[in-house]
Fold this sequence. Notes:
- The chain is an alpha/beta fold.
- The chain folds into four domains: about 5-65 and about 100-195 and about 295-465, Rossmann fold (3-Layer(aba) Sandwich); about 195-290, Rossmann fold; about 480-550, ACT domain (Alpha-Beta Plaits, 2-Layer Sandwich), CATH 3.30.70; about 560-660, Biosynthetic Threonine Deaminase, Domain 3 (Biosynthetic Threonine Deaminase, domain 3), CATH 3.40.1020.10.
- Strand 1 and strand 2 (about 55-60) form a beta hairpin.
- Mean pLDDT is about 80; it is low at about 1-75, about 80-105 and about 130-140.
Amino acid sequence: GASRATQTAGALAAGGRSGRRRAQRAPARCGGDRTSGIGRAASSPPAAADTTGARTFISGPAETKGDESDEEDSSHERVPAKRPVSNTAAAAAAAPLLEAGAASQPLLQVAPSDLQLPPGAVSGVRGGGVIVGAATADGAGLDPSLSGMGYLKRILTSRVYEAAVETPMIVMEQLSDRVGNKVLLKREDLQPVKSFKLRGAYNRMAELTEEELARGVICSSAGNHAQGVAYSAQQLGADAVIAMPVTTPRIKVDSVKRLGGTVALVGDTYDATQAYAMQRARDEGRIFIPPFDDPAVIAGQGTTGIEILRDVGKLLGRGEVPHAVFVPVGGGGLIAGIASYIKRLAPEVRIIGVEPAGANAMAQSLQRGRLVELSKVDPFADGVAVRKVGAECFRICQELLDGVVLVGNNEISAAIKDVFTETRSILEPAGALSLAGAKAYLEYHDMEGEAVVAISSGANMNFNRLRQVSEMADVGNRREAVLGTVIPEERGAFKKFVSMLGALNITEFKYRQGASQDARVFYRVNYSGADVIEELCDRMRTENMPTYDLTEDQITEMHLSQMIGSSATVANERVFTFNFPERPGALALFLDTFSPKWNITTFHYRASGEAAGRVMVGFEVCDDTREEFFAAVDKLGFDYEETTDNLTFRMFLQASGTWDSVA
Length: 663
């Protein structure tokens, strides 16, 4: 029979009033200053936070990518490069569908680094701001179907189960024992397309008329939404065109084609691909199926919330609810839908979003009380690597969310390993995101004996990424540290250094005698215990062997650890990391931009299976060409970051670098 939560929801949807009340729990031990982690603002600083409760309010007024590129396949469309779509045109074409009467205020441009939080800290939620592109124009009124009760009815009457399945919820026994809290995992990776995206895509398409289905549908996606639309079209007997960036890996292209979709490869970026899809929809009369910013899509994703409340009652006891539900956030459709359901039936349950620290568009939007657009995104968790969240999604989240937790790539990799250890299933990075956030939250707030829910939102993993994830997992679980130590270049010093490591297990070690008075050692050690590494660093320093913890430096992990072993002195050297689109011709374009004007001093590329290849490059840039050089970098159009002052680079790869002043 139906659970109590479902019965209550049915009464509400029918206009009745439920007599059941849940006891309100006291706020978690995350109040005070620890609840809010307000980072450095790009433009105007956020107002002071009110941290009197578990939820933080602040008073006051999308680009997704695929994985590794493959060779061309003649069995699908490759759209010719004529009529290239500019960034401006792409942005205009990709405007939210719910734009009636939208304000003309441009989106605030920010960088991911403009909001930095300790892992597990909850971001603020600022109310009362202008929601650019939201469903309501001037506050004069909201379509009743988009109200709280309207969304509840939409969710309860959704048709997702004509295609999607009710996925199980499991207790992660080993992880629960380790963290001292009951961790429940909602297995959306077990959907027919290995992702929750099927729910929203099918619900949107199930609302189409027979005439609209006959015209066909189109979407733009490099991953899970593409498969959801193709599968839904197959179930409904509609023709589907799936526009995908040219960098999309063969495995994802083939998956869409197996489901009956016609693949059109166009554009290096998601913005360009979406602009093409929307223009083709207009030209051919097809219906564009958005990935998240649509009421029907949001309602379809919201059915996950029905199952969460029902299954928690089965696992914890009838009428019990979790302390919090952690939801991965990309464009915001899943968390908007889940919050629309759970917050109406069990308002005491915290709904907390989880984003990568390098793709934090929702956290920054909520922090400022307005939609923002990220200047770049970290492509590691490509399924949520979105530059801007949906306007309607943001409107709902601003009303209902308790905040957002940010996590690093190491923590995401550790969560992938946790799930594999207990289920033998391999999640994609975005699929393990919410579990990483739940773990960080529980640790940061020193919680014990609570129950939390995380969602394994997808398992469309590129096999080529497993090496990178495996290397990062132990770091994310606080079991491996990456260290650099300076030892005097004298007899006996190396032996003394090794003896001071004691019983720590060394997993990697790089040492080479240099021309200076000091030698530098790069190494990794396994450890257990929160203070072990800090104590080792202190012990080394007392013996005149300065030691630095390099564990959290992504540049070290991705590039520099592979290059250590030689060093050089290069005048006027500047070092950068670039995100290269994984397609033929990208390297030639890059070299044409800089050569022969600027000499390349170092170059490192490591295939990781991500949407964009990560490359570290050094240049000789004299002062008199500096302005011209940066103009060329900006014109190139690749996401980049200058890393000239990176500690590991100065310490190990510059023979006469001033690394000690940087440290």
